[in-house]
Amino acid sequence: MNIIYITTKILTYPGAYLKGALEHLACRMLKIPVLGKSYLQGDEWCGHAEHAPAGTPAKAWLVCFLPCLIQCMFAAVFLGASAPPLLIFGLRGGEVAWQMFCLAVVSLFLGVSMASNVFPQWSDAKRLWHLFYGKPTEEELQLMEAEIDEAIAALEMMEEEESAEAEFPVLTEEVPLDITDEEASDEDAEEIREILAKEEMDEFLEEGVAAAAQPAVPPQAAPKFAGLAAKILFAPCNACFMAGAMLERCGITAILAIGITVLLLVLNYV
After folding, report:
1. Most CB contacts within 10 A, which of 34, 65, 131, 232?
2. 154 exposed, middle or buried (CB, 10 Å; 0-12, 13-18, 19+)?
């Protein structure tokens, strides 16, 4: 199955590459980290942009729908441009010039390649279905509990700070650090300036080290699941995404697109 899938992606590489670029753009718009560096690689992400899982139903749906919509528009434009010369006017009796025939064939190839890659990647379709109709896994439940615990801890810390400010208002006030020559000697002022400059440099270095130590991919947040209204409203579209992704995973979409195109041409010219 993997060999057939990758072969169909290579045969329809213009549409596969465009689909990966559109998914990459959608992930950037939705602030979903993109993990892969190539759109044509030798695994299940061939013809797609490898990215982190979407955390909400809205993002999961948009990352499937937006590239599909734009890909369908491109496919319709190229197929529409190639249909009149090849199917309506025909090439019999020299009715169409050779240059137009070549352009029509190129447009047909681009349209078929894009129509073969309109559906989302299988992992994206499964993630979409899970966020709409699935149940949280144990790992997701742990993430949800961790987020709740962090929110409770942050609230308790805020309450402690407010109570401390109310009880000790003098201690929490900021002490001015500006020292003039009238309040201290020149040597003391210079020494204090050096100490403050060193503290600022230490803080700057600590922030740089902390930023460098952060992982390239941010930690996964707890997912959110769709409500009942969204489940009913988006059910036909989600089912279409699932079925199309399954067919594309098996290479059937490309085989059907190429087969139907060849059949129409044969019936038109025989």
Report:
1. 131
2. exposed
